[in-house]
Structures are given as structure tokens and as C-alpha cells.
Specification:
There is one protein chain. The protein is mainly alpha-helical. It is built from 17 helices and no strands.
Length: 418
């Protein structure tokens, strides 16, 4: 089991908690989790270049455990620790994911982010009805115990996590790299590795040699090009889904229990879409899922915009955000998979860090300065439909490709093939 899965569950709970509080009273304090997630992602490149990624998981799990202990004592700084853990884990998971996984199921395993966050949202919505002024301590303790459990599970899984063979190849440790590949293919560690393991080692060694010999302004320019393509769709998904959630929050926020039940359906729809993503990503492919997701989001948000302010507004606010969350779960993980495949070896962690920070910054601005009307939603919906055409033209299909081939496809400006 990937240790990041449990860290993302805790992160999903804290993200939902702070976003809802921020929407309720617009206090800048509740943005702290998002700011600290940005700080954590900045630590990702530092740890990624110095130590194997599994140690980043261990440190992040420890942060989650300590954050849970602090929550039990009703101290608010637990959000800070959890935010840092989430940011570090995000960078480590995306950067190491493609290096540790076979191409045939790379997308499914990298969906751990959207699955974990979705489960965390659902757990939060189950625990949320306990919240009231008179039992605020109970609410903190419940989250504390769940966070401790997630942190312990992540820490245990970290000890069994496979280190990246590319990390060992770059550090001139071919024997350890072969052992990591044997573990990847679930083979016993022997002095005489199989031909399949040797072929994989040769492929990764060639990839490392090529990446380390060509790093410079031109490869970094290709990284910026790929980052622009991926960043636009990732930030657009975040803005669209958050905007629909804001009007949903305004409709239900007067009653805690009704809001918790309604939000449970939001989280469940997102999780349901994420499960579809897991089964389809390595079968249908990244590009088709991204196009289907943005098409569904576009139609949903346009309908919400048309009905917003009319006599059917309440029905739209109750139903459309749930539909939008399903398409979010279906397509959000595509950008995560793309980030693991698109960038050069040396520029990967830096570009992932930049995209994660831009996404957090967009959410902070959106939640603190929320203003939506019929025109805003129609513009967002048209933007999603426009994104469908842009994805078809500019984003490549990378299912079941090697890292070298995926990187080559992203270096092209136009990618018209499925």
C-alpha cells in the first residue's frame, strides 16, 4: 500500500475543514493550511534531491501523527503540520510515481491522490455533524484520532515502500537499482536478475544518461511548455469545482447537520468519479478522460449559470455541484499523472512544486474573494468546453509509454493523436 494514500486521507479532511471555515467567516487564519501546503511543496524538491522519496513519506507521516496528537489537545497548530505533510507528499508521490511503477498501471497507482483526498472529504462529512459550540473538543479529538491512525498507517507503509531505481542509478548504485526493480516486478532478490529486470534497468539507465547529459535551457523550456499545458487544466478544475461548491455552501450553511449530509453526497460523488478514473485511466487513456471530464464540467456549470438567480436556482444549487464533483473526481487525477510523466529528470520536482503552489494560491484567492453570479458561471462553463478543444490539440496521450517516450511527446507543441 502506498503510504501517501493515508497522508492524503488526513489532508482531505483538513482541506475540507479549513475550506468550509474559510467560506463561513472569511478569516485569513483558515487559509493557513493552504499556505503551509505551499511551504511543504517547496520542501519537496529539497528532499527529493537529497534522500530517497520514502524518507519524505516517513517525515510527512510523522507530521500527521504529531498533528493528530495536537488536535486532541485542541491546539490549532495541527493544521500547520498537516499542511506541510500534504505538500511534501504531493511532490514526492508525483515525482517518484512514474519512476517506481510499470507503464501498464502507472495511472491507476498515481490516482492515490484523488482517491485519498476524496475519502478524506467523505470522512470529514461523516464527523462534521458532531460539531457544535458545546462539543467542539469532541470534534477536535475525533479528527485527532483519525489523523493519528492515518499517520501510523503511512509510517508503517513507508518502511516497506520501494525506493526509486532512478535515484540509485543517479547515485552510482546499480546493485540497489536492480534490487528496486526486482521489488517493482515482485521478484525475489537474487544475484542473477531476470532478463526482464535487466531490460528495465538498461532502459532506466539510458533514460538517466540522456536526461543528465541534455539538461539546460532547451530542456527546461520544454518543461515550461509542458507545465503551461498541465497547469491550465489543473487550475481550471480547481476553480470550477470550488466555485460550484461555494454556492452549495451558501445554500446549506445555516444548518450544520443538513450541510454535513449534503456535503457527504458531494464527497461521495467525487469518490465515485475517482473510482471510475482508476479503472479507465490505463485503459481508455489520459487524454480521453480529460476531455470527457471537462465536457461534463462545462455543461454542468453552464446549466448552473443559466438557472442561477431564477426560480429554479435552489434545485440547481442542490444538484449541479454534485454532478460537477463527479466529473472532478473523474478528471482531476489526469493532471497528476501527466505531471509525473511530462518533465525532465532534474526539473521534475521544481515544476511539480510550482504547479502545486499555483493551485493552492488559486484556491486561497477564490475562497477569500468569492463573488459569483450567472455571468461568472457561464464564463467558467465556456472555459471548460474550450479546454476540451485545447486538450485535444495540445496534450498528448501517454498511456503505457516509457518515460522517454512520454517526455518526447510532451516536447511537441501540437498533439492531435489519441
Amino acid at each position: 500500500m502506498n503510504p501517501a494514500f493515508f497522508i492524503f486521507i488526513s489532508g482531505g479532511m483538513k482541506m475540507s475543514q479549513n475550506a468550509m471555515k474559510l467560506l463561513a467567516n472569511s478569516e485569513s487564519f483558515h487559509s493557513a493550511w493552504f499556505y503551509l501546503a505551499m511551504v511543504g511543496s517547496l520542501l519537496g524538491p529539497l528532499f527529493g534531491t537529497c534522500v530517497p522519496y520514502k524518507y519524505s513519506y516517513m517525515i510527512s507521516s510523522a507530521f500527521v501523527i504529531f498533528g493528530g496528537i495536537i488536535s486532541i489537545t485542541n491546539i490549532v497548530t495541527s493544521d500547520c503540520l498537516d499542511g506541510i505533510a500534504f505538500g511534501m507528499t504531493m511532490v514526492a508521490t508525483i515525482a517518484a510515481g512514474a519512476e517506481n511503477l510499470k507503464a501498464c498501471y502507472r495511472g491507476r497507482v498515481l490516482s492515490v491522490e484523488v482517491i485519498g483526498v476524496s475519502i478524506g472529504m467523505v470522512i470529514y462529512c461523516v464527523v462534521y455533524p458532531f460539531y457544535a459550540e458545546e462539543n467542539d473538543i469532541l470534534w477536535f479529538k475525533l479528527f485527532g484520532y483519525i489523523s493519528i491512525g492515518c499517520g501510523l498507517a503511512g509510517l508503517i507503509c513507508s518502511f516497506y515502500a520501494n525506493n526509486s531505481p532512478i535515484h540509485y542509478i543517479m547515485n552510482k548504485a546499480p546493485t540497489r537499482a536492480i534490487h528496486a526493480i526486482q521489488k517493482m516486478y515482485k521478484e525475489k532478490r537474487t544475484r542473477n536478475p531476470s532478463q526482464k529486470v535487466l531490460a528495465k534497468f538498461s532502459e532506466l539507465d539510458k533514460y538517466v544518461r540522456h536526461e543528465t547529459s541534455t539538461f539546460g535551457l532547451v530542456p527546461f523550456g520544454f518543461d515550461l511548455l509542458a507545465g503551461l499545458k498541465i497547469g491550465l487544466i489543473r487550475i481550471l478544475v480547481a476553480i470550477v469545482t470550488s466555485s460550484s461548491f461555494i454556492v452549495f455552501f451558501d445554500a446549506y450553511s445555516r444548518n450544520h447537520k443538513d450541510f454535513a449530509i449534503a456535503t457527504f453526497f458531494l464527497g461521495s460523488a467525487r469518490l465515485f468519479g475517482a473510482l471510475f478514473f482508476v479503472f479507465l485511466i490505463d485503459w481508455i487513456g489520459r487524454k480521453k478522460i480529460a476531455m470527457a471530464s471537462f465536457f461534463g464540467l462545462g455543461i454542468s456549470i453552464i446549466v448552473l449559470g443559466v438557472l442561477f438567480g431564477s426560480r429554479d436556482e435552489l434545485m440547481a444549487v442542490m444538484v449541479i455541484p454534485v454532478v460537477a464533483q463527479f466529473f472532478t473526481g473523474l478528471g482531476e487525477g489526469v493532471s497528476t499523472v501527466y505531471m509525473s510523466e511530462a518533465f525532465s529528470l532534474k526539473g521534475k520536482t521544481v515544476m511539480i512544486c510550482i504547479l502545486v503552489d499555483l493551485e493552492c494560491a488559486a484556491l486561497i484567492v477564490l475562497n477569500e474573494y468569492k463573488y459569483f453570479n450567472r455571468i461568472t458561471f457561464c464564463i467558467l462553463g465556456v472555459s471548460c468546453l474550450t479546454a476540451v478543444a485545447l486538450i485535444f490539440v495540445f496534450l498528448p496521450e501517454t498511456k503505457k509509454t516509457s518515460l522517454t517516450e512520454a517526455r518526447k511527446r510532451f516536447s511537441s507543441v501540437f498533439c492531435l493523436k489519441f
